[in-house]
Amino acid sequence: MCSIIGCIGRLNVAPVLVESLKRMEYRGYDSVGIATIDNGRISTRKGVGRVADVDKSLNLIMMPGQIGIGHTRWATHGGVTDKNAHPHYGCRAEIAVVHNGIVENYKELKEELVHLGHEFKSDTDSEVIAHLLEQYYAEQKDGTQAIIKTCKRLKGTYAFVAAFEDGTLGGSRYDEPLIIGPVEDGYFISSDILGFLPYTDKAIFLDNKDIVVVDRHRLKLYDSDGNPVNRPVTQVAWELAAIDKGKFTHHTLKEIHEQPHTIMIAATQNREKINDFCRILLDSKTIYFTGSGTSYHSALVAKHILARFAKIRAESIMSSEFQYALDSLDSSSVLVAISQSGETADVLQSVKTAKQMGAKILSIVNIPTSSLARISDSFLSIDCGPEVGVAATKSFTGQLSLLYSVVDRLCNGRVDYEAGKLELVDAINDVLASETEIEKVADRIRDAKDIYIMGRSIHYPIALEGALKIKELAYIHAEGIAAGELKHGPLALIDKNSIVVIINPRDGTFDDNIASAHEIKARGATIIGVSDEPNDVYDIFVRIPSVRDALYPLLEVVPFQILAYYLALRKSVDPDYPRNLAKSVTVK
Ligand code: F6R
Q1: Cα–Cα separations (whole angstroms), residue 33 to 20, 256, 580
Q2: pLDDT tens-place string over residues 33-63
């Protein structure tokens, strides 16, 4: 979603803001804007495109001033146009605002403000915040009061930062993150710690409805009624070097290659924390897993291995559907929420609803300071470092690795994941070493219009995940199908133009898959087998090493990640930043 940054300090602020926005661009990236204050005057430059491109055309870094705000947008209300890019103003250039979230009642507010004489310049919901601030600021010339009154009028979710021409910055949040980074001679206010991490590893996380006002010397925090509050300073521990691309051409490829390392890290948990996590699971009568997109696919694998090894039944429900499936949730239930970012709106909504019904909340995140981690009864972090590529890769295998460790504990080591993870590291390294072979497969199928990916049992979630990767990175229609369902409908789609990938390692699903493959071949489709065992039925064979049955999901997903990456390159798509998507989906 959108990124917001505010900075007040002694340095020329524009280059600092531009660099911050570049680091956070993975969150959303259709337009960019900056406002700086110099000699009591606010000026703005904004436009459509990526940060580097807009900077090049508008010379953002040359904007004067030591105080400023910046924004990258992921459009929700109003098209991707210069005028809809943030910052927004009221009628006069006294207050500039950047916003992330959705103001649900913006139509009513806009009508009211128009009635009072305000003129709107954009089609965004965000602009109402600027006009409300302007309206209330005009009454008392007090930025804090203007923010308090404005927030009381907003329905929906928001994090915003406003720059006032008197040189103060102020903002607030509700269900969208807003974090303060205190530095020696000023402050950052950002939607993401990556916004200020090169300057400080200290962070102050605002609670919902908190209000922040900073000038160069002072930070003031208030609750929604204007009473002063204190929030602790947290030490954040990420090395910024981790967001370099290193020797790789894209973050996505680098993150795919990091997986042998990240599955080890994710499986290395603090003993007390994992025991606490497992105790809560064992104490519950019913277990639900939830997540969105790729994290939901982890939830599907989790349900499978929990039943298979620990003989514990669980439900996996995608977060966007969770609110419609609550009938059997109560205080004896536990909800395990899985999310890389820990900020996904659908996941947070599921957690809030489950909490209201008395359920305990466990979470698996990559960002220990995220909203999800902070509202959970207990959480575990996969600690795979920043995942910048919009497509989830290392976070998926990290989540699985952690889930396998948890299940292993619940079933007294029956998964034997201690040895299993070492086996996996070797096997994944083998697949990574065959990258050029997979690239050749991408060449052969680059013009495909439809790709079907089939798998049974524990491989079915990987069929879904493989299809998701191809859709989002290469913009090719791809569908994950439970192989046994083929003859119940999908076979009607298969013809000589179809590409069908069968996930088929030698396990209990192998023979049935070969039978399905023959049915498909008879309809003229091209068949790609992903397996440790070749077979005549495959037109193209992608070899993966043999590992023990239960571990295949962590391994067999890797060829799909590589395939999707190279398909994106063949289609001249930037794999790190697929169109219309954002890394952190903080709106419902
Ligand atoms: C797919 C992808 C998305 C995310 C989903 C959930 O590659 O990245 O489907 O998996 O938006 O995000 P998190 O895990 O941050 O909750």
Answers
A1: 12, 32, 19
A2: 999 999 999 999 999 999 999 999 999 999 9
Is the Cβ atom of 347 under 6 angstroms away from ligand 1? yes
Token pair 């049974």 is found at: 456
For the packed helices 417-433 and 259-266, what is the interaxial angle rounded to 10 degrees? 170
Residues 222 and 264 in one domain: no
- Of the candidates 339, 298, 245, which has an alpha carbon nearest to the alpha carbon of residue 575? 245
The string of pLDDT tens digits covering residues 329-387 is: 999 999 999 999 999 999 999 999 999 999 999 999 998 888 999 999 999 999 998 88
Examine the domain organization and report whether 464 and 497 are in the same domain.
yes
* Interatomic CA distance for residues 43 and 45, integer angstroms: 7
Measured CA to CA, the distance from residue 470 to residue 181 in angstroms comes to 37
Q: Is the CB of 587 under 6 A from ligand 1?
A: no
My answer on whether 224 and 289 are in the same domain is: no
Q: Is 516 in the pocket of ligand 1 (CB under 6 A)?
A: no
Given the CA of residue 372, which atom of ligand 1 is nearest to it? 16
CB hemisphere CA count around 219 (13 angstroms): 25
Nearest CA to ligand 1 atom 6: 292
Query: Residue 468: CB within 6 Å of ligand 1?
Result: yes
Active-site choice (254, 303, 471, 583): 583
Which residue's CA is minimally distant from atom 5 of ligand 1? 293
Which pair of structure tokens corresponds to residue 82?
């210069």
If you measure from the C-alpha of residue 40 to the centroid of ligand 1, how many angstroms do you get, rounded to a whole number?
42
293 and 223 both lie in a single domain: no
What amino acid is encoded at 188 in this protein?
F
| Domain endpoint, select from 415, 449, 471 | 415
Q: 2 catalytic, yes or no?
A: yes
Ligand 1 contact, 335 CB (< 6 A): no
Residue type at 163 in one-letter notation: A
Decide: helix, strand or coil at residue 189. Answer: strand
Q: Find the helix or strand (DSSP H, E) in which 365 lies.
A: strand 360-365
Asked if residue 585 has its Cβ within 6 Å of ligand 1, the reply is yes
Residue 534 lies in a domain: yes
Assigned domain for 426 exists: no
Containing domain of residue 80, as a range? Answer: 3-236
Mean pLDDT lowest among 190-199, 257-266, 453-462: 190-199
Report which protein residue has its CA nearest ligand 1's atom 4: 293
For residue 291, give the ligand 1 atom closest to its CA: 16
Main-chain dihedrals φ then ψ at residue 505, nearest 5 degrees:
-65, 160
Give distance in angstroms: CA of 342 to centre of ligand 1: 10
Domain-ending residue, one of 168, 202, 236: 236
Same structural domain, 484 and 339? no
The CATH number for 490's domain is 3.40.50.10490
Verify whether ligand 1 is closer than 6 Å to residue 397 (CB atom).
no
Catalytic residue among 2, 7, 278, 384: 2
The kind and range of the H/E element at 255 are: helix 251-257
Ligand 1 pocket, 292 CB below 6 A? yes
- Taking the centre of ligand 1 as the mean of its atom positions, its distance from the CA of residue 582, in whole angstroms, is 9
Length of the chain in terms of residues written: 588
For 533-581, the pLDDT digits (tens) are: 999 999 999 999 999 999 999 999 999 999 999 999 999 999 998 877 7
C-alpha separations of 158 from 13, 78, 171, 208, 339 in Å: 24, 17, 10, 10, 20
